[in-house]
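Researcher: Next sequence.
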Amino acid sequence: MILPIYLYGQPVLRRPTDDLEPGTEDVKQLVADMYETLTAAEGCGLAAPQIGKSIRLFVVDGTELGEEYPECADFKQAFINPEIVEESEETVTYSEGCLSLPGISENVVRPKTITIRYLDEDFVEHEDTFTDFKARIVQHEYDHLEAHVFTDRISPIRKTFVRNKLTNIAKGKTVARYKYKRQ
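Model: Next structure:
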């Protein structure tokens, strides 16, 4: 089922998230719905707060980016209760956008490589290291679980340039090409 994506200004995007415990959600169905929503919105990552749930879950699907970013060709997975355990000192700057902030893209500096510990859909623990664009996708979605959006990470001068756009999104004065939920 395609779910509405919550846009900037919705309180759930700034609320701390809780660990997802086995049996509290139909995880397999929720993950399937999140992938369906992500595909319909033509995104590469979606976090639970973006669909109105304050739980520590996100999905990524970088398969459509495989031509431009070969490391993403088979990158499709769910992350439950993730924790970034290591970040490289080396950083990379890249322009990011977000399904919850339609029409905004800005350069964001992030660590080039991260190591993350998480559970999969079967609640099996993993620890993986991601680099380059895979690391960026994971960090962007992880930020949502920490009650952050990518514009929190841009320079103060750039924040002043996007302030009106963010205000318009929060006031419902924007549209998106996918199913979304306003205030």
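Model: The chain has a mean pLDDT of 96. Residues 5-181 form a domain with the Peptide Deformylase fold (CATH 3.90.45.10).
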